[in-house]
Structures are given as C-alpha cells and as structure tokens.
Amino acid sequence: MRKRITILCFVLLFLGCGSRDGTINSFVNLNHALSLTDSLTVNGESLAFIYIYADASSYEPVIAPGEGITCVDDVGRFLEVLETEIVQHNRNNLLPVAAGMTRFLLYMSRDDGLWYNFMNEDGSINTTYQTSTAEFQWWAIRGLRGLTAAYYIFGNKPEFADLIDNVKNRIISMELHLSDALSHYPEKEETPFGMRPLWLVRNAPDMNAELLTVLIRLTETGAFNYRWEIEKIAEGLMHYQYKNPESDLHGMYFCWQSIWHNWGNTQAASLMAAYRLTHKPEYIESVRLWADNFVPFLLSNNFPWEISLLSDSSYSLKSFPQIAYGINSIFQGISALAYETKSKKYQKISDEIYAWFMGRNVSGISMYDPATGRCFDGIDDDGRVNYNSGAESTIECLLAIQKSVSGVRE
Fold first, then answer.
1. Scanning 2, 91, 149, 162, which has the fewest C-beta atoms within 10 Å of its C-beta?
2. What is the Cα–Cα distance from 90 to 50, expressed in whole angstroms?
3. Dist CA 129 CA 144 (whole Å)
4. DSSP string spanning 13-44?
5. In terms of Cα–Cα distance, which of 165, 166, 158, 171 is closest to 219?
6. Residue-wise pLDDT tens digits, 246-261
7. Residue-wise over 353-378: b if at least 16 C-beta within 10 A, else e?
8. Do 277 and 231 form a contact (C-beta atoms < 8 A)?
9. 3-state secondary structure (DSSP) of residue 224
C-alpha cells in the first residue's frame, strides 16, 4: 500500500525540470520535506501526506503514539508551499503530490464542515484523540488553508475539474460554522482588558486570523465572495489589540484571553491581507501600531514564547522555546507591512526577524540548512538547538523563505 519510494523517485528525478524550458527560479530546497512525504491507498484513492516528526540524526519519520502518522495541520500548510512552487515557479512535477494531499484533506473532512486531524498508520482516521475529534477549529482552518491552496493550483486545470468541484463543496461546507459565529455580531462583553467581541469562532483571535486569511484568499479568486465576513472578523481582531501607551505591550494582539503566544500570532499578517483586499486604512494603522511598539519589544526580548497580561497592566514573560512557527508568524506580518509601505524601517525589522532562521538567534546557529532543506525544531529552554526536523518546522521555514523573496503571496 505504501507508495513513498514511487513518489520520491518521481519528484526527485524531475526537481530541475519544473517548467517547459527546464528552468526553476525557486529559492527553497524541498528535499527534506519531500523525504517526509508518503502515500496510502484508502477506499481506492491514493492519499499523499507528510509525516509529522523526524528526529536527528537519521531524520527518518517517527510515528507519534496516540496521534498518528500525519495530520491535517501539516498537510494543509505544506500545500501552501507547493502552491508557490507550482504556480510561481512552474514546478509541475509536484502536481501529483499536491493532488494526493488534496485528496487527503477531503478524506479528513466531512460534508457538515467538521474536520478530523490525525490519520493512523493503516489509513484509518483517529477520531478520538483530543486534537483530532470532528470539530471546526484549528485543524479545520489549516485544512481550509490547504484546500484554498489547492484551488489556486488546480482551479484552471480542466483535467482536475472533478477534484476542484469536491474542493469547492468542502470549502462551502464551512459556511454554516462561520454563520453561527458571526450571528453574534455586534455583541460584545466587558473584560478587564476592555470590550471583547463575541462573534469570532470560539472567541479565539489567533485562530480567526488564519481563518481571515483563508476567506481573503478565496475572495481574491473571484469564485467566492466573503467580503462581509472578512470585514467582521477583521474588526473583531482589532478589538483584541492591546492599547496602552504606558505599557511595553502597547500594540500587542492578544492570542487567547489575556495571553499572547509566539506560535500562530498571525493577526498582523491577516490584517495586512485584509488591507490588500479592501484598502481600509484602519487595518494598516492597526498593524503599524503593532510594528512600531510591540515588535521592537519582541526583538529586545529575543522572541519570547508567551506573555501573560494581568488586569493591573503588569505581565509575565516565558522566554522559551523558540520555534519556526512563531518566528514566521511575526515575520509574515512585518514583511507584508514592509512590502505595502515600501518603508526601509519596516524592511530592516523584517530582515532582522528573518535572520533568526539564518543564525542570528540566541544559539548563534542557523536553523535552516540550505543543503538539505531541513529546519530544526527550535531552541529549547537552555538555549540549545533541538536538531530534530519535523514537518511543521520545515514547512514554516519554507513559507518564510518564499515570503522573503516574493514580498507578498500573489
């Protein structure tokens, strides 16, 4: 059933032949990521996926007890990497992997818009693990990120018409859950940190930032129209921005309740995407406030892992770990602001954040190995590098590299 060798041989054989004239202008090395890809035949369909973990020094895939061999979280994001390589760099040899991963996402989702996350080694779905039950939350949104990427990859290819029809239907199935949350607009509640909106999915601004980006990218295709939803979610995210000029945290976007965390803090990036679509000045002004105040605080404190704010405006800070997902989340926002404003100041900050991947971090070690395409799993509490190189770290690093050379996703 396993087809890993077949996929790898096909892809690696043609790594240098992505366009008809044989030229590729990509700046990323996909070798490690592709070495983690595999496939299974389930119900007569070939499903491609990427293993979750790969430990040093062999960097062979490691199975996670209780979870599974792969997850929607990683496959969805890796499809965004593949989208850039296929659409912008003509690496059409990657189309079979992208198609197989699209089928995997369709397999892991349901007609009612709910998603599972982990797949077991035998191809069955893990329906009981706490982050794999059928829900509409993080893994559903990352799955939708992947289906959105699939739409950009296959939407204009007639030979994939049936696949795209299934993708569109699965995307539309999210609308019930989106409507349920937004039906509470414009309700708010009083908190120690001001009025908070009650119309975001699960009242989680970090999660809704990724959902906002999905809705924007879908609307930009011209095949979907989520402009009303985009404006309401963007408004909700701005209500979660901390504004206190006397505080070190002025301009910070809360990720959850009274907490900011490094991973998944993509509110700035999503608001910049909303600005790109709507040109509403309040979006970019919100991001400027973040960039001018909170980002310098993050830099001066070496990218903390988590910040907890108390009602008296004091805060506690947890320094480690540092991971690619966290650094890329910050980088995506500041890079988009630099691109949009053409500001040398923001570009300098963007470059400083991106340099974390290349060794300008507390360990002094490059987190990305261009020779292999590996990105290490992070920097631990003692400042030592975790040399494992799982899917998430690799994918987030590749997304950062792609962003650094393109400025903004086209």
1. 162
2. 22
3. 20
4. HTTT--STTS--------HHHHHTEEEEEETT
5. 171
6. 999 999 999 999 999 9
7. bbebbeeebebeebbbeeeebbbbbb
8. no
9. coil
Residues 235 and 278 reside in one and the same domain = yes
Among candidate residues 319, 340, 367, the one where a domain is terminated: 319
Tokens of 157: 């290819």
Q: How far apart are CA 89 and CA 28, in angstroms?
A: 11
Domain-located, residue 343: no
Indicate whether 15 pLDDT > 80.
no
Q: Beta 315-318 vs 306-309: how paired, if at all?
A: antiparallel
Domain boundary among 266, 287, 319: 319
385: left (phi over 0), alpha (psi -120 to 50) or beta: beta
pLDDT tens, position by position, 317-358: 999 999 999 999 999 999 999 999 999 999 999 999 999 999
- Cα 63 to Cα 47: distance, rounded to the nearest angstrom: 18
Q: What contacts 342, CB < 8 A, 6 or more positions away?
A: none
- For tokens 């349920």, name the residue: 180
Domain co-membership, 14 together with 45: yes
Contacts of residue 190, Cβ cutoff 8 Å, sequence gap at least 6 = 196
> What is the rounded distance in angstroms from the CA atom of residue 205 to the CA atom of residue 233?
9
- DSSP H helices, 40-174, are 72-83, 95-107, 138-154, 161-172
**In this structure, what DSSP letter does residue 291 have?**
I
Q: Which of 197, 195, 199, 226 is nearest to 212 (CA)?
A: 226
- Tokens representing 285 are 């002004």
Q: CA 289 → CA 194, 278, 296, 336, distances in Å?
A: 18, 19, 11, 14
| Cα-based distances in Å from 381 to 22, 133, 305, 322 | 45, 31, 10, 9
pLDDT in tens, 34-57: 999 999 999 999 999 999 999 999
Of the candidates 27, 19, 132, 149, the one whose C-alpha atom is nearest the C-alpha of residue 83 is: 149
Domain that includes residue 189, residue range: 174-319
